[in-house]
Design brief:
Layout (H helix, E strand, L loop, with lengths): L7 E5 L2 E5 L2 H6 L6 E2 L16 E4 L18 E4 L3 H7 L12 E4 L7 E2 L2 E2 L9 H7 L2 H12 L6 E4 L6 H12 L4 H9 L16 H9 L3 H7 L5 H11 L3 H5 L2
Parallel strand pairs: 4-9, 5-6, 5-9
Antiparallel strand pairs: 1-2, 3-4, 7-8
């Protein structure tokens, strides 16, 4: 089956329905994987490498995969319950040695037995509603990131590009990474999905919402209800200290 046909829009009554090809998704398990570290960030600092990773789902992963060399402390699954039911949870080997697994089912109301029914929104705002329709879930996500001793941490959805891409964009924005680099990371997913490419403009409505709140700190406080201590904890754990840069 060609990828153009893998996600086919049909009509069920008046609401468009997307038929999700779970066979395709099984085949991309563990792909779209990368370390979010290394990006230059605020105050001349840099995002720590080896601390936070993103990926497609982990129910099926190739025998030789860099993830198998990692020692994770926390794994966050952003898939809906139905996706986990069809694809399976992360492979048991990734949950050994006391790895903490958190399931935050973003998109749960959209995934139904007969297809995928995403909220109707104007073109270009599809990723914005991944954020705005699941604010409590995103609050839970960042609250976990603000806990101490949760790193190294990996988060993923099924394809590792949309929900995972939104989460990565907000996190990198919080860490002070330039938006051009955030967009660059977002578009890396097109290597895995060349027939369904993401576009840089898909993050623009999220950036606009952040700017409406005076920047990322105001957005996190007013929209996701995080406090300054949460943001400071995330930055402290995921940004190299200023002295680390000077020593290089």
């Amino acid at each position: 089956m060609s990828r153009e046909k893998d996600f086919k829009i049909q009509v069920a009554g008046k609401q468009p329905r997307v038929v999700v090809d779970f066979d395709l998704l099984r085949r991309i398990g563990g792909r779209n994987f990368r370390d979010l570290g290394g990006h230059p960030a605020i105050e001349g600092r840099r995002v720590r490498s080896g601390k936070i990773y993103r990926s497609a789902h982990l129910a099926t992963v190739a025998d030789e995969h860099p993830l198998k060399e990692l020692t994770l402390r926390t794994l966050i699954t952003l898939q809906s319950r139905l996706e986990v039911e069809h694809l399976g949870p992360p492979k048991p080997e990734f949950l050994e040695s006391g790895v903490r697994w958190e399931h935050i089912p973003i998109g749960d109301p959209w995934f139904r037995k007969d297809g995928f029914y995403k909220i109707d929104t104007k073109p270009g705002h599809e990723h914005l509603v991944i954020l705005t329709e699941f604010l409590e879930d995103w609050q839970s996500f960042f609250k976990i990131l603000a806990e101490r001793e949760v790193y190294p941490l990996l988060f993923h959805c099924s394809a590792g590009r949309d929900r995972t891409g939104v989460g990565a964009a907000m996190l990198l924005e919080m860490l002070g990474v330039d938006r051009a680099l955030i967009l660059e990371d977002f578009l890396v997913s097109n290597v895995t999905f060349p027939q369904m490419p993401l576009k840089a403009g898909q993050l623009e409505p999220i950036f606009a919402l952040i700017d409406e709140h005076g920047g990322i700190d105001g957005f996190m406080r007013e929209v996701l209800m995080l406090d300054s201590a949460d943001m400071e904890a995330i930055r402290e754990d995921l940004l190299e200290a200023a002295g680390d840069q000077a020593a290089r």
